[in-house]
Amino acid sequence: MPINNGQLPFEKPLVELREKINELQKFTQEKSIDLSDEIATLEERAKRLEHEIYGNLTTWQKVQIARHPSRPTTMDYIRHIFTDFMELHGDRLYGDDPAIVGGIAKLDGVPVTVIGHERGKDTKDKVARNFGLPHPEGYRKALRLMQQADKFGRPIICFIDTQGAHPGVEAEERGQSEAIARNLREMAGFQVPIVCVVTGEGGSGGALAISVGNRLLMLEHAYYSVISPEGAAAILWRDAAKAKEAAEALKITAQDLKRLDIIDQVIPEPKGGAHKDPVFQAKQIKEAIWTALEPLFQMDRDQLVYDRHEKFEKIGVYHTVD
Amino acid sequence: MLKDLFRKQKKYATIPSEQAKKEIPEGIVKKCPQCGNIDFAKELEKNLKVCKNCDYHYPLSAPERIQMVVDEERFFEFDSNLSSADPLSFPNYTKKLEADREKTKLSEAVVTGEGTIGGYPAVIGVMDSRFRMASMGSVVGEKIARAAHQAATKKYPFILFSASGGARMQEGALSLMQMAKTSAALEKMHRESVLFVSVLTHPTTGGVSASFASLGDINLAEPKAQIGFAGRRVIEQTVRQKLPEDFQTAEFLLKHGQLDQVVHRSKMRETLIQILDLHSGGRVDRADQ
Ligand SMILES: [Zn+2]
Description:
Strand content of chain A: 15-25%
CATH architecture of the largest domain in chain A: Alpha-Beta Complex
Number of helices of chain B: 11
CATH architecture of the largest domain in chain B: Alpha-Beta Complex
Oligomer: heterodimer
CATH class of the largest domain in chain B: Alpha Beta
Distance between the termini of chain B: 53 Å
Number of domains of chain B: 2
CATH topology of the largest domain in chain A: 2-enoyl-CoA Hydratase, Chain A, domain 1
CATH class of the largest domain in chain A: Alpha Beta
Helix content of chain B: 25-40%
Helix content of chain A: 40-55%
Shape of chain B: globular
Largest interface: A-B, 54 and 67 residues
Number of strands of chain A: 9
Largest sheet of chain A: 8 strands, mixed
Number of domains of chain A: 2
Order of helices and strands of chain A: HHHHEEEHHEHHEHEEHHHEHHE
Radius of gyration of chain A: 22 Å
Distance between the termini of chain A: 51 Å
Shape of chain A: globular
CATH superfamily of the largest domain in chain B: 2-enoyl-CoA Hydratase, Chain A, domain 1
CATH topology of the largest domain in chain B: 2-enoyl-CoA Hydratase, Chain A, domain 1
Bound molecules: zinc ion
Order of helices and strands of chain B: HHEEHHEEHEEHEHEHEEHHEH
Radius of gyration of chain B: 19 Å
Number of strands of chain B: 11
């Protein structure tokens, strides 16, 4: 959990150093004493410290950044990356799930379908959106919008940011499993380019249900995991407090997933994480989306399906005994 | 030594009746975990491992299931030479795999192959919950995907018996991605108009329930099988309310429209034969073919 000003615990030494520099600067102005040498030394130290802290983030520190309350959400990215966004609601079967948002927008003038988990902003919004944990109707809305995109030949862009699918009685009654499973199968078959970006938390099947893309991209400090670190710790050591160790063992960072050949590209974040500069972050994502889309625009409909199948067919590590 | 055993197994088609003989439990009597009724193991076998007193369906090993469903000596195994690696160097994973290989005499948690059922050819997959709770790692995902490709190529129906605790945590995101891999393989099959029958047995939960197991053209389940996405305890903690008695049972899913039928084990083979029969011949092909 962040301490004051949205600073995370591991950022504390840096924050303290910055405060000291500020004090000295104030002192210089007020007392007209030249402390520029001292300030320069401290600035140098701050730079080194910044490099040390942000350049060597542990998995658990990344998880904290991915969960930062000020981390930009899908709606932020939609606003910064696209124009003419028109939100479309409902699954036509049961209801409208605000934990998933979707609609049509333009990406530099090109109409695309945009879908993403939405965690919400303030407390009221977060509660209304169930903190971004979708029910089956959320996945079915996403499916409806993707089928629409397929019909009109629009590329699909998905933003993934959820702790997971909602675990609840009604979700089970309405077929949470089936809703996720169907999306996985249908996404594999769409004849349009699909680019998926994991922006924050990639929580298990609930995240995967909108991430069967031709290209899977991940922000530098996002994570993607089969189980939450807390859940894994509870199973492994019967102690949710060991989430830190579990996070390391599960290999959940963007860098881990790149090494395992699961994702295609790691999108850089500003120092300290996306929340430090959402506009810069959006720019980085937009660039990465275009890099992913360009080769896909060269493929015909069958090639797009083939490309996606090939991507997932290749994922897995095992031995073949002769 | 263990390796030799695999070597022998993989060279030849597994003949399930012989395989199953080795799997007969050592105990002479079995106590029903549901009603406490004590039955001779031999008698229980004859009754397809269903308690005569309360109808409890004992879990079956993959060889036992194959023996009960597939025509005798008509099963030829695929891909028994695939075995799990430890890609994340996850604590104790290798040891656990070795122990389960020894215990089950299987190379992994699913057995796939082709055979005939009532004379109808089919691709068949059976998960075995004795092996790592039949959780889905890279090998389980790969074998199921390959079986689906075989079905799509040969135009044989694919019948898959699920039983799984879900994803295999020890393979991290690689395990998660098997959900997409298997579902993509089924998409291909779906496009080729090849029949997929999913039989959900106890328990089918998590990532397996939320991928191939829910994607049957026809979804069947055994009585009282636990089927669901989220674990019962997780849900209880989230909603803080008492869950209905039959929550996440096969009967619950049937009531909520998630299954086509709940099928008693004694009727499973004939039900499958009926489905295969209903899908054989008489097909009106589309005009464009
Ligand atoms: Zn009984």
